[in-house]
């Protein structure tokens, strides 16, 4: 991780661990969540060959596809391309196991103009999904567990007008909130898009979406979740309600960049409460064992063997890898 002076960062290309693509040109993706998790932003890298003109969407999709921990929730919303509806971060994409679409609440949301049963033709809607909506959305979530990209099925390409219901796509539970992160929304909050170079002082609020954004060598795309005063959506904790629309180098950007993500973790560095028993879960959230508070790290490793696990003690937890 890299920590700089107050509310600014500089991407260190040499520290980026997770890359997608090949070629002499490079760009970086920085993602910052708004929740009660660690105050850090995550970094991925993207490469491409000379003569190729990738977009911000090309980079995001390539990284999500190749990454062991990044999930992209996106929707085709019209002729300008795709919108980022939500972003998830979790080891082996385990957050996808907890995602659900709350169709009942979405239907009651007065701010959603899409009509599931009678096309809102004044907005260009041409068709309706009807009662198949829930199954279509459930199928999209299931598919995303393999592709790492959740493509919203109720989109403008199919129905002429997109359903902006992102506030109602949320995880119903998390076994490790610090390391299973998710923000999605449109009225309660949204993913703001910032573009610039390695130094966040160069960031400015993007005037185009990721589909229209053309990458240049050395570019950095920053995605930061912003709280809004909208009336709907499941509440995001610890939210700030102001938006800095001038520079990315504001108090809203964390100082810490996390390049290694889940690499290099182990029981010796697990954040546990020494006064509480150690409880061990697998990545599906199934409890495997409970051990006394004074258990040695070596004993835990011997108990677990090789694999990925969640260690919880009191109100502290950590995802670990035993090699």
Descriptive notes:
With 323 residues, the protein is of the alpha+beta class. The protein folds into two domains: 2-258, no CATH class; 267-322, no CATH class. 14% of the residues lie in helices and 31% in strands. It has five helices and 18 strands. The chain has helices at 56-66, 103-108, 133-147, 156-159, 297-304, and strands at 2-3, 19-20, 25-32, 40-48, 70-78, 81-90, 99-101, 149-151, 169-171, 180-184, 189-196, 204-205, 219-227, 256-258, 278-281, 287-291, 307-313, 316-322. Strands 1, 2, 3, 4, 11, 12, 13 and 14 form an eight-stranded mixed sheet that branches. Strands 8-5-6-10 form a four-stranded mixed sheet. It has a four-stranded antiparallel sheet with strand order 16-15-17-18, covered by helices on one side. A hairpin with a 2-residue loop joins strand 5 (70-78) and strand 6 (81-90). It is globular. The two termini are 22 Å apart. Mean pLDDT is 86; it is low at 2-6, 231-251 and 265-271.
Which spans of ≥5 residues are poorly predicted at pLDDT below 50? Answer: 2-6, 231-251, 265-271
The tally of domains stands at 2
Helix content: 10-25%
Distance between the termini: 22 Å
Please give the radius of gyration in angstroms.
Answer: 20 Å
> Treating each run of at least 4 consecutive H or I residues as one helix, how many helices?
5
Q: Per the principal axes of the C-alpha atoms, what is the gross shape? A: globular
Main β-sheet description: 8 strands, mixed
Total beta-strand segments: 18
Strand content: 25-35%
Strand-pairing-aware structural class: alpha+beta
So what's the oligomer here?
single chain
Q: Compute the average pLDDT.
A: 86
Write the element-wise H/E pattern from the N-terminal end onward. EEEEHEEEHHEHEEEEEEEEHEE
